[in-house]
Design goal:
Distance between the termini: 61 Å
Strand content: over 45%
Oligomer: single chain
Shape: globular
């Protein structure tokens, strides 16, 4: 017989006493059965079964009857990818079958199997068994009949599947047939969910990818927007790289919504993930408005068609397509609230990008799909960028960005008196930088750039909005950055409570001066395309980061600041314990600001220990015409049982946005092994509105966590009050049943 395979058996894989025992038994077996030793080393029956090696060790001895080898008493059978244990084993040297009986345990690439009787084939890697139990990833499967298909899958008939590893699980799925593909999916037929001993519901078919969100979901509840509702989603396979999800969403106030999603992954590659979806609802009350913002009249046919796909064509070539067709401008707000909060006016475009070692080329087509949204169409536009690289072997670095395309400003229907306008535009930017160091510590980076923008035609900003001939807008840009660092190390600072193992303080003062000369027309005299949008964030003063191409005008701006960084050692690495970046602008000439000084900005990130985190972004006015903004986020795991979260947004005197003083406070407390509570509140102090309240009680039911609580929302129009109930499977949370009674509608 051969020695144990290299995957963990033998002297290095077992205690010494057991190794000696095995060696002695193997020696006795060799002495008694010498005529068969050579055949066993090669793999019994090589003519019919291949060359799979096998080793059999037992305490009761081994006998042979023709081509059958029988071992009894604490039998261990080792093959190249499986370990089999039983009270008795019969090995057919011709077929490669190992018949096991009594306290059978099989460990293979498919999982762990236990039972009374089984047959395992060392060549096909298949197991056939009855009244068997298997452990496969998170699943425990018990079946009247079970067998493996290949080495990485399990098929069971008359099966019970659960993730609760007890003899009497809290819940189980009873199925006529279960098929589990390793690291891929679970497919069940004729499925009944049983909680305790009570059947809850039945489904003809359940399909669940192991590494994706649940493909079966049911939510129910009541809201002022939808009335009583139930949202059902059901997943199923369509083709090798396509999964489908059906949505059925009855709502008492709005009607029944129907949807179909196709989840795409060409070639099985995660980088190629995409979705094609459609959703339709004949809305019973399309003009229901729970906000104080007036609406245009809306028809009852509400729908959405969405296609979002990224395709990796090669290592350096990929394409991206997004098309989002909406029936009206309110359909996202009414039925897809999560997406509406992030992107209320989704763009539709198609792009293909080629990346090289120091360049990127992109061909972009952007078009108006929804006539109620303002859109700058690009039909198409090509952009070519070069990264900062040495220029002809000199200590000078060059970078560029050039774009050319047909642009059209397409306004929403019936929303403006300004007519649509268009042009062919070419914009080309070229910049040279010369990094150098003085005195061994002062880093200085001067830069010089030229930019030219050509318009086939321009449109005057004043009525009657007449078109003019072609225009060329040359731009000159120059500037200089300078900075230096100094630091000090404090080795004697050591506080484990604050996560400190030594401390290094780095201070970096810096300045950045930016000058722009516009040798062409004033941006205010023309209707333009890529313009500067109102924001509370600080201005970008360098190119090509500043990408509002058509808004570029004369400026002279000096940015002064300093960075503070406190570093410590953790897990053999250097980590930033505290970071602070403080700066402001001196506006010698700033076309986007009417003040001589910008606000004073502070960007803070503080993470002393992994269980505490603070982030702040603040700006404080240096002149009477400035504004104040403070954004704070804080998370703190006080103890393993208590977690606190805090958020704050403060905005005052901004010319474009309303004042706000919004607090968001939450907490979670684990009372004992079975019970926990959580609370979350959001209040706008400026008008005294308690916008949202959530109070939850959580019950740990071994396999499941059940949560019940109350939700109250003030929409400054219609208040919403309701309850929320959820059940989540702890061991396998993506395979859960999210029952919700939630006055805030969830996503279909």
């Amino acid at each position: 017989m051969r020695s144990l395979p290299a995957h963990g058996r033998g002297i290095n894989g077992i205690p010494m006493v057991m190794a000696i025992k095995r060696a002695f038994l193997a020696g006795v077996f060799l002495a008694v059965c010498a005529p068969f030793c050579e055949a066993q080393t090669l793999g019994f029956g090589t003519e019919g079964t291949g060359d799979s090696p096998i080793e059999i060790i037992s305490s009761g001895g081994t006998s042979f009857d023709g081509t059958i080898a029988t071992a009894t008493g604490n039998v261990a059978v080792y093959t190249d990818d499986a370990s089999l244990y039983a009270d008795r084993a019969d090995y057919d040297t011709v077929s490669g079958d190992v018949f096991l009986e009594g306290n059978v345990r099989i460990y293979s690439g498919s999982g762990m199997f236990t039972g009374d009787r089984a047959a395992y084939n060392i060549n096909s890697k298949q197991t056939r068994a009855s009244n068997f139990r298997a452990k496969f990833q998170q699943f425990q499967i018990q079946a009247g009949r079970a067998f493996t298909i290949g080495s990485r899958s399990v098929t069971a008939e008359d099966a019970i599947a659960t993730t609760h590893d007890l003899s009497t699980p809290d819940y189980h799925l009873r199925a006529r047939k279960v098929r589990v593909l390793a690291d891929d999916r679970v497919v069940m037929q004729d499925v009944t969910l049983v909680i305790g001993e009570t059947p809850v519901f039945w489904l003809p078919y359940v399909y669940q990818p192991l590494n994706e969100s649940v493909t079966f979901g049911l939510s129910a509840g009541f809201s002022e927007l939808w009335g009583a509702f139930a949202l059902l989603q059901y997943g199923f396979p369509v083709a090798k790289d396509i999964d489908g999800v059906v949505h059925l969403d009855p709502r008492s106030k709005r009607g029944v919504g129907l949807g179909l999603d196709f989840l795409l992954q060409p070639g099985g590659k995660p980088e190629n993930e995409g979705i094609l979806s459609g959703y339709y609802l004949n809305d019973s009350d399309p003009n229901l408005n729970l906000t104080s913002i007036p609406r245009f009249p809306t028809g009852s046919d509400r729908y959405r068609i969405k296609y979002d796909q990224r395709l990796s064509i090669s290592e350096f070539l990929y394409a991206k397509v997004r098309i989002d067709k909406l029936s009206d401008q309110y359909v996202l707000e009414d039925f897809f609230q999560n997406e509406f909060a992030l992107n209320p006016q989704p763009e539709s475009y198609a792009a293909i990008t080629q990346r090289g070692t120091n360049y990127t080329g992109t061909l972009l087509g952007q078009f108006q799909v929804n006539e109620f949204d303002d859109t700058v169409e690009r039909l198409p536009e090509f952009t070519f960028e070069t990264a900062r690289t040495p220029w002809f072997g000199l200590p000078v670095f060059y970078e560029s960005q050039t774009s050319a395309g047909f642009l059209r400003q397409n306004f929403a229907e019936n929303t403006t008196l300004i007519p649509d306008y268009s042009t062919f535009r070419v914009d080309s930017f070229h910049q040279w930088t010369y990094p150098t160091t003085f005195f061994g510590w002062l880093t200085v980076v001067p830069r010089a750039a030229v930019r030219g923008t050509y318009y086939e035609q321009t449109t005057l900003a004043a009525q009657p909005f007449s078109h003019t001939g072609s225009k060329f807008k040359p731009i000159l840009h120059g500037g200089v950055e300078a900075s230096f660092k100094f630091s000090k190390v404090y080795e004697n600072i050591d506080d484990r409570r604050l996560g400190l193992d030594g401390l290094r303080h780095i201070v970096q003062p810096y300045m950045d001066f930016s000058h722009v000369t516009n040798l062409g027309f004033s941006p205010n005299s023309r209707l333009l395309y890529d313009t500067l949008q109102p924001t509370t964030q600080y201005d970008l003063i360098t190119f090509p980061q500043f990408n509002a191409v058509d808004s570029i005008d004369d400026w002279d701006i000096l940015r002064l600041g300093f960075r503070n960084r406190l570093q410590t050692r953790r897990d053999s690495e250097t980590v930033n314990w505290l970071e602070l970046d403080t700066f402001f602008n001196i506006n010698f000439n700033n076309p986007y600001s009417n003040t001589d000084y910008s606000n004073l900005f502070n960007i803070i990130r503080f993470e002393p220990v992994p269980w505490a985190y603070l982030s702040m972004q603040t700006q404080i006015p240096l002149t009477s015409s400035g504004f104040t903004e403070i954004n704070t986020e804080f998370n703190f795991l006080v103890t393993p049982e208590v977690q606190l979260t805090f958020g704050h947004r403060y905005l005052e005197n901004n010319p474009f946005f309303d004042d706000s003083n919004l607090f968001r406070v939450g907490g979670y407390a684990r009372i004992n092994d079975n019970w926990a509570v959580s609370v979350l509140q959001q209040i706008e102090v400026k008008d005294g509105t308690l916008e949202s309240q959530e109070y939850m009680i959580h019950r740990d039911m071994t396999s499941w966590v059940a949560s019940v609580g109350a939700v109250v929302r003030d929409n400054r129009g219609v208040d919403e009050i309701g309850v929320m109930f959820t059940i989540t499977l702890k061991d396998f949370p993506q395979f859960s049943l999210p029952f919700n009674l939630n006055p805030g509608p969830s996503e279909p």
